[in-house]
Amino acid sequence: MSFCIANEEIYCNNTVYFISSQSENLEYLLKYLNSDLINWYYKTLSVQLGETAVRMFSIYVLNIPIPKNGTGDIYKSYALNEEEIKFIESISCNS
């Protein structure tokens, strides 16, 4: 998955999904959504399209756990231990 912030007006076709907000810090959200941890989590939660793609459905996206007060370190924000971190990093290296 790949997320970005578009500050300019853009036109999208039917394969682009977006999140818009007037109240949420989108830079904060972007940091988590582009992390290896959330990429792994979403793949376990959602519908797969082959080995490298996933379907973005709101029922899955709305269930992505984003910490309200993250520490800046993705792994610490979720209180992962060293073994869990190694697992996530080994999976992301193989993707």
Overall tally of structural domains: 1
Largest sheet strand order: 1-2
The major sheet is characterized as: 2 strands, antiparallel
Low-confidence residue ranges = none
Overall strand count: 2
Please give the alpha-carbon distance between the first and last residues.
Answer: 11 Å
Order of helices and strands: HHEEHHH
> What's the alpha carbon Rg, rounded to whole Å?
14 Å
Give average pLDDT, whole number. Answer: 85
Summing up helix and strand content along with how strands pair, one would put the structural category as mainly alpha
Percentage beta strand: under 5%
Helix fraction, binned, reads 40-55%
Question: Assembly state here?
Answer: single chain
Helix count from the secondary structure assignment: 5
What is the 3D shape?
Answer: globular
Please describe what this structure looks like.
By secondary structure, the protein is mainly alpha-helical. It has one domain. It is 40% helix and 4% strand. The chain has 5 helices and 2 strands; from the N terminus they run H-H-E-E-H-H-H. It has helices at 26-33, 36-45, 58-61, 74-77, 82-93, and strands at residues 48-49, 53-54. Helix 2 (36-45) crosses helix 5. 3% of the residues are buried.
List the helices and strands and how they pair.
Elements (H helix, E strand, L loop, with lengths): L25 H8 L2 H10 L2 E2 L3 E2 L3 H4 L12 H4 L4 H12 L2
Antiparallel strand pairs: 1-2
Helix pairs in contact: 2-5
